[in-house]
Amino acid sequence: DTGVSQNPRHKITKRGQNVTFRCDPISEHNRLYWYRQTLGQGPEFLTYFQNEAQLEKSRLLSDRFSAERPKGSFSTLEIQRTEQGDSAMYLCASSPQIVGTDNEKLFFGSGTQLSVL
Amino acid sequence: GIQVEQSPPDLILQEGANSTLRCNFSDSVNNLQWFHQNPWGQLINLFYIPSGTKQNGRLSATTVATERYSLLYISSSQTTDSGVYFCAARERDTGRRALTFGSGTRLQVQP
To answer: Hey, which residues 30-49 in chain B have their CB within 8 Å of chain A?
Structure first.
């Protein structure tokens, strides 16, 4: 169990550029989440995957954001035409699905810190 | 959607002291978790506790679901306990999987 891995750890970009982040969940975890955290706040939910299916998206997720999990393993989060307000820590979490229970403990990666200049 | 409020927002302790952190939530929940975010930003899951009491070493947590609050107890605090503690909850019977986080309690343990 190597934990949830996120790359890159830091990303600095200019306004208007596109960026892509990657998340590798704990193996055999079929649930994957993306959250965003700004300074001094708790994480905010962005989107949820069960296997390769994107089943839930937050209203925070504008049209400039897209997420994929093509084979039900790793996931990518892309932000197009970045804005300064996109500057935040982007966190990925995974959890196993335990049939017959709502028991679900999330395990977070170390995050990708995005700075938009 | 569900509202999650944590108190106090900030807490400074001397090493060895005990503390209680509180989390209030506005609706019935089917999932409640406590996390510790260390100074390097890593979120560590402490407890999954939608109801009842659990203990893990110097930490314990109690959730009273009928009264919509949860408490995290830290005993004999150590400097490594410093960081931000978050409570996160999922509203029952919505079909949604999103966890809503509180704003956290920032804890500083001084030697």
So the answer is: 30-31, 33, 35, 40-45, 48
